[in-house]
Design a protein that fits this description.
This protein is mainly alpha-helical and 263 residues long. Helices cover 76% and strands 0% of the residues. It has one domain (68-262). The chain has helices spanning 3-31, 38-62, 68-71, 79-100, 102-109, 124-157, 160-173, 182-199, 202-220, 237-262.
């Protein structure tokens, strides 16, 4: 696969995602005037559009021939690697947090007070759809596309570092709807890509993706306060210390995975 094709497939997935959403959501919204149903409609539409867009890519351009029985056999995976994935997941969260908080950090250093009484107002139904999308759909669909498909195909034609960077950029681009997440998704893509290149098993990447999203979903639905270093807006020494710790434990976990996979 060429670099141009990788970007085209990514753009096409985004186009499919948009078209499917519009085709499903707009007619239903026009027919149903009861706003209480919109939460369900939007949640279901988002899930269908994500799955549908990538299935179209798989069907028309990839046509994978998976051995599902082999893929789900526990004995085909190294239990030592599973032990380090949660550590890396926590590390990724700590590394990416300053990028998610970028606007708040600028405000803080400019002397602008941040909102320390914010509480996520999502209702239970919205949270359920978010859990399905972020914990079940995204890890499986995105890892199969960006690691098993793009990275695998790119690494045939290019050096691993080039394939890794391009697939990670594509992974970042698909999250363009949340600009502060562009750099975090690129960083995550690099780490997930390295694990895939070292192990050649998307299952590890799917689990790590799930762990990272679980941490994000959990922290996004708890109260924020300035004295909470994990999810607060007090950008002091402890905040940046945790950023450094994130880099450290991620590097340790990645080194252990590499060692475990070569034994």
């Amino acid at each position: 696969m060429s670099i141009i094709k990788a970007f085209l497939y990514t753009a096409l997935a985004f186009v499919f995602w948009t078209i499917i959403q519009l085709v499903i959501f707009l007619p239903i919204k026009a027919l149903i005037e009861e706003p209480n149903y919109f939460t369900h409609i939007f949640g279901i539409t988002k899930i269908i559009s994500v799955v549908g867009s990538f299935l179209l890519i798989y069907f028309f351009f990839w046509k994978p021939n998976f051995d599902f029985k082999k893929a789900i056999k526990i004995e085909n995976y190294d239990p030592r690697i599973y032990l380090y994935l949660p550590i890396i997941g926590i590390g990724i969260f700590l590394i990416n947090k300053p990028f998610w908080d970028f606007n708040k950090i600028l405000e803080s250093y400019q002397g602008i007070s941040t909102n320390d009484n914010f509480f996520n107002s999502k209702n239970n139904i919205t949270i359920i759809y978010s859990l399905i999308s972020n914990l079940l759909i995204a890890p499986i669909v995105e890892e199969l596309f960006f690691r098993k498909f793009l990275l695998d195909k790119l690494s045939i034609k290019y050096k691993p570092i080039i394939a890794l960077i391009i697939s990670s950029i594509c992974f970042s681009i698909i999250h363009i709807e949340t600009p502060n997440n562009l750099i975090p998704t690129f960083i995550s893509g690099i780490i997930l890509g390295i694990i895939y290149l070292k192990t050649k098993k998307a299952g590890y990447c799917i689990l790590l993706h799930f762990i990272v999203n679980l941490i994000i979903v959990t922290t996004n639905n708890v109260r924020i306060s300035n004295d909470n270093w994990l999810i607060g807006y007090n950008f002091d020494f402890i905040y940046w210390l945790m950023f450094g710790i994130g880099i450290f434990i991620t590097s340790i976990g990645m080194r252990k995975i590499t060692t475990a996979n070569t034994v």
